[in-house]
Amino acid sequence: MIYNQFMLINPDPVIVGESFVKDYDALYKESIANPEAFWEKLAKELSWDKPWDKVLDWQYPYARWFVGAKTNIVANAIDRHLSTPAADKVAMIWVAQPTDSAQKDEVVTYTYKQLNEQVSKFANGLKSLGVKKGDKVMIYMPRVPEQFIAMLASLKIGAVHSVVYSGFSATALKTRVTDASAKVLVCTNGYPYGKKTVDSKANVDEALKDNKTIEHVIVVDRLKNGSGKTTPRDMFWSELVEKQSPECPTEMVEATDPAFILYTSGTTGTPKGVVHAHGGYMVGIYATLKLVFNIKPDDVFWCTADAGWITGHSYILYSPLINGVTTFIYEGTPTYPDIEIWWKLIDNYKITKFYTAPTAVRSLMKFGEEPLKKYRLSSLKILGSVGEPINPEAWLWFYKYVGHEKCPIMDTWWQTETGMHMITPVPSVGLKPGSAFKPFFGIEADVVDEKGNKVPPNTQGYLIIKKPWPAMLLDVYNNSKRYHETYFEKIPDVYFSGDSAKIDEDGYFWIVGRNDDVIKVSGHRLGSAELESAFVSHPKVAEAAVIGKPDDVKGESIKAFIILKQGITGDDVLKDELKQLVRKEIGPIATPDAIDFVDKLPKTRSGKIMRRVLKAQELGQPVGDVSTLED
Ligand code: PRX
Q: b/e for 573-588, b at 16 or more Cβ within 10 A?
């Protein structure tokens, strides 16, 4: 069949037959008529130590869900399965990155019972170090089983974790550890990354040089060479857990107590600590995965994200476990040791639901469909996409060659702040390639102008959410002012997402991209201001402005405009130096693709750089309203 982006792709009748949701419109209507009843019904499918007095306490702009209730994410992700046949089911399959294509897989699996033991041992280990309810545990690790065990163990004892993406630099780690005032840090002594070995422990040591709050650093010997203990506060994971009991009671916390802080980029130089609670977050991610990916007990769910980002928190770890299925984790990247690794893993481990990012699809699409033809991919039932808009061409390739025209694609729009899917199809609806469909149940979303008025169909505007939802962020850690300003002041009475979108005549949402200064490079969220402050830390740089430019594979690439200090001339050597500097200050994901040395930058009269003007000029587009432009 020849497809195009304008057609409606109807679901396979088998998928519809298996779906929890058979009639999106009817359930959506019901959920919107009474969202609290909708969420309450789903919450009752989970385990609570004490029921709630109130489903929602909405005191604009703060939402508190399941007020008065006591629970713990871990009580639902692990404990509730231990008294059921799921206790002996595989909770987690982890496959190490092989050194070459011929190497036999190194696999680690845990049943729910075994995972409980590992989590309990580490939880007891944390307790033995004095970690208590509310203390912050920093996790700076690659995708290894201990990363997930450390996350679960922190929550189990009521501590609050903050995972920092392993690709972030020492400076980026330092900023986050300092803001969180963390007590303990968990890391590895390094990790394989393709042919290279990354010395991530050196980043930890540098980040903690002047740190006053971290008392212990727990090091996983991922490199299996006994390296990594460099200071008296360091200890190996194995030393800590070997003496611990495999039993540890789960601390029941208030549903509204914080579970984790996840730092994310915004419009200013310092990242925001997005705080999520146990109760509401847990209900939101449980419900979305269940209905969007039609989760059934035998599913083997593979989300290719990293736990350094929200997708890894919600849909690699917590929601698959809360739903009682098997979560699959591959340590490596999509193209190492070869470009077939993902397809091989899907066949070998019989993955049923596969959730990935457009950038990965595009990077594999470059190699054509031949590499896929060796694989059956017949276990797959549903595919998913997240992190950035998926262009219709990539959507169709994914649909045809990975899903064999049988697996619907769930293009899920959401954010670190939303915690859970917000605009997404369910498997039984007709799909338009490139559209994220419509809001999830209980979610009221719209596209409006700057005054908050709905824009006509097919017109670009601001994507907003009108009512609170259970996995909504609690606050910005240590910075409520920023919470108000970023999400609730631009347009009163609604949650301002920072994205632009259009709604077509059929009510389908089309996400255009960010309307603030956030750049999405390979789905990774970076702030222009963060990048600019890295540039201006160079002694030869006077000013910097950074924009995101469309990129065929990465979605966006970074372009910087630099004004040098007087008397300095720019050349390729300086460009390289600046690129290295940004890698050091933020991490390799932030490496700029292009740097231009300029004499002037477009600014407002108050001196604010108008990145929008730079971007329009760069892309040859109309510059729009420039009445505030100084020159
Ligand atoms: O611009 C949107 C884009 O990713 C942003 C959120 O980034 P982050 O907080 O890192 O979370 C990413 C994973 C949920 C959004 O503001 N985005 C996310 N999903 C989609 C998307 N853009 C278009 N389509 C999506 N499905």
A: ebbeebbebbbbbbbe
- Take residue 626 and report the two structure tokens written for it: 């420039």
Give strand pairing partners of 184.
Answer: 137, 216
Q: Residue 161 forms beta bridges with which residues?
A: 137, 260
Residue 95 shares a structural domain with residue 235 = yes
**What residues make up the domain containing 355?**
13-501
Tell me the two tokens of residue 160: 């609050």
- Whole-structure pTM value: 0.97
Residue 337: is the preceding peptide bond cis (ω within 30°)? yes
Could you tell which of 391, 412, 499, 526 is best to mutate to test the pocket of ligand 1, judged by most ligand atoms within 8 Å of the CB? 499
Backbone angles phi, psi at 80, to 5 degrees: -70, -15
Contact 357, 554 (CB under 8 A): no
DSSP state letters, 539-587 = TTEEEEEEEEEEETTTEEEEEEEEEEPTT----HHHHHHHHHHHHHHT-
Q: Are residues 483 and 529 in the same domain?
A: no
Q: Which atom of ligand 1 is least distant from the CA of 411?
A: 26
CA–CA gap between residue 379 and residue 374 (Å, rounded): 14
Looking up residue 605, the CATH number of its domain turns out to be 3.30.300.30
**234 in the same domain as 123:** yes
Listed residue (152, 164, 153) closest to 129, CA to CA: 153
Tell whether ligand 1 has an atom less than 6 A from the beta carbon of residue 314: no
pLDDT at 5: 67
Domain count, the chain: 2
- Considering the domain architecture, whether residues 162 and 240 belong to the same structural domain is answered as yes
C-beta of residue 582 within 8 angstroms of C-beta of residue 531 = yes
Q: Is the domain of 492 the same as that of 538?
A: no
- 3-class secondary structure, 212: coil
> pLDDT tens-digit profile of 30-41?
999 999 999 999
Residue nearest (by alpha carbon) to ligand 1 atom 2: 388
**Cis-peptide, bond into residue 61, ω within 30° of zero:** yes
Q: pLDDT tens, 193-243?
A: 999 999 999 999 999 999 999 999 999 999 999 999 999 999 999 999 999
Q: Which DSSP state fits 443?
A: -
Q: For position 360, which CATH number holds?
A: 3.40.50.12780
Q: Does one domain contain both 218 and 304?
A: yes
Is residue 340 in contact with ligand 1, taking CB distance under 6 Å?
no
Residues 439 and 491 in one domain: yes
Percent of the chain with pLDDT over 90: 95
Does a structural domain hold residue 593?
Answer: yes
Q: Tell whether 464 and 549 lie within a shared domain.
A: no
Burial of residue 373 (number of CB atoms within 10 Å: 0-12, 13-18, 19+): exposed
Cis peptide before 492 (omega within 30 of 0): no
